[in-house]
């Protein structure tokens, strides 16, 4: 199904603003709504800083987008090269503590298999961090076919995150952006994601990784069920969201939280300015949750931006997000690539 350009712009700009603004709050555990509102009001009034820099989340998404646009195909080796080159040219973007070892090993030239460094992380268990998920939005913007989305999210995730908790989180985030682009209704969006995770988490590695971490089988599906339960209740506190879905650096503690934030914020949120539109509300809600705010907001921003389109991108927030012009240009190019790959 063809998708309008404004959704591609919305996705890339929503993700960029979530990262740039979310980085102001990253790691705070209990943020008061007053302090979040004060920061956002200052932005709206044109206060400092004039430019909000993006972090590793956007740096890696940029590498993915550039790889797809230049190669017109998915190329894992090219992605590994770009991630590594980007890290060494600009290492201070706030990368996860473990993933930099992957880049060093890839750079060393001592590994003939580009997936081996990721497998050696965390004593051979592989990382379950959210670094594969935070960049996965680029895939559904370039490739409309659902089987491609799943395969490429998994393969690109495995370049840095060999734990199934890491790469399955990337698959879930990529699927969420895919269905948001299609404008699925809230119920059908969630039930499609549930059906997919039922299959995706059914393989032996997904089961054994989850059991070993004492999560029980189908950890993502269980969190999606929790989201459904939360949405059915009239009133769920942010403390309960953080407690049950998480706000941490693990993919399992952040991808479902981003999806919940998107769905939750279709309804009004107390503690945020009434004049906020739904995209602003979604990002603001992610900031209020605290924890890994840049990453949760970048993922929720990608989903909400894909769904609501760029009409909801606030100019004040956009103009101070570093390199927003690239996001606008790449949205057009990705839209063309996506459209050209639709079955005729
Ligand atoms: O996942 P990753 O790329 O980090 C992304 C996060 C985002 O919040 C960014 O904004 C940036 O701030 O970092 O990097 P990794 O180093 O692979 O994983 C992130 C962290 O998750 C690690 O540094 C660990 O603290 C934790 N972690 C694990 N801890 C124990 N055992 C990930 N996997 C494991 C594990 O297997
Ligand atoms: Mg970051
Ligand atoms: Mg960080
Ligand atoms: Mg982060």
Automatic annotation (TrEMBL):
Mg(2+) binds at residues 55-57, 292, 294-295. Its cofactor is Mg(2+). Keywords: Chromosome, Cytoplasm, DNA damage, DNA repair, Hydrolase, Magnesium, Metal-binding, Mitochondrion, Nucleus. The keyword Metal-binding applies. It comes from the Eukaryota. The keyword DNA repair applies. Its EC number is 3.2.1.143. One of its GO terms (molecular function) is metal ion binding. It is found in: Chromosome; Cytoplasm; Mitochondrion matrix; Nucleus. SUPFAM superfamilies: ADP-ribosylglycohydrolase. One of its GO terms (biological process) is peptidyl-serine ADP-deribosylation. GO terms for cellular component: chromosome; mitochondrial matrix; nucleus. Pfam families: ADP_ribosyl_GH. Binds 2 magnesium ions per subunit. Monomer. Belongs to the ADP-ribosylglycohydrolase family. This is ADP-ribosylhydrolase ARH3. It comes from Aquarana catesbeiana. The gene is ARHL2.
């Amino acid at each position: 199904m063809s998708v309008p350009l404004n959704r591609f712009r919305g996705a890339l700009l929503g993700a960029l603003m979530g990262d740039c603004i979310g980085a102001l709050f990253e790691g705070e555990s209990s943020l008061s709504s007053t302090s979040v509102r004060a920061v956002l009001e200052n932005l709206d009034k044109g206060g400092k800083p004039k430019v909000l820099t993006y972090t590793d989340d956007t740096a890696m998404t940029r590498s993915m987008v550039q790889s797809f646009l230049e190669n017109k195909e998915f190329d894992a080796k090219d992605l590994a090269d770009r991630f590594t080159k980007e890290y060494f040219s600009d290492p201070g973007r706030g990368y996860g503590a473990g993933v930099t070892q992957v880049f060093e090993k890839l750079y060393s030239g001592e590994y003939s298999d580009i997936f081996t460094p990721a497998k050696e992380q965390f004593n051979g268990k592989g990382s379950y961090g959210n670094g594969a998920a935070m960049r996965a939005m680029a895939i559904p913007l370039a490739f409309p076919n659902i089987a491609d989305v799943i395969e490429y999210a998994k393969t690109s995730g495995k370049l840095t995150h060999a734990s199934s908790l890491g790469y399955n989180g990337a698959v879930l985030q990529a699927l969420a952006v895919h269905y948001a682009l299609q404008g699925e209704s809230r119920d059908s969006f969630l039930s499609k994601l549930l059906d997919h995770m039922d299959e995706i988490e059914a393989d032996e590695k997904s089961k054994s990784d989850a059991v070993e971490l004492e999560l029980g089988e189908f950890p993502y599906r269980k969190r999606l069920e929790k989201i459904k339960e939360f949405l059915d209740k009239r009133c769920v506190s942010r403390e309960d969201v953080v407690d049950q879905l998480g706000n941490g650096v693990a993919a399992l503690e952040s991808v479902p939280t981003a999806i919940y934030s998107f769905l939750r914020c279709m309804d009004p949120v107390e503690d945020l300015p009434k004049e906020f539109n739904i995209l602003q509300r979604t990002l603001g809600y992610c900031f209020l949750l605290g924890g890994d705010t840049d990453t949760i907001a970048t993922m929720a921003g990608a989903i909400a931006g894909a769904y609501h389109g760029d009409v909801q991108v606030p100019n004040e927030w956009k103009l101070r997000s570093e390199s927003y012009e690239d996001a606008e240009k790449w949205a057009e190019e990705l839209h063309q690539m996506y459209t050209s790959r639709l079955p005729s």
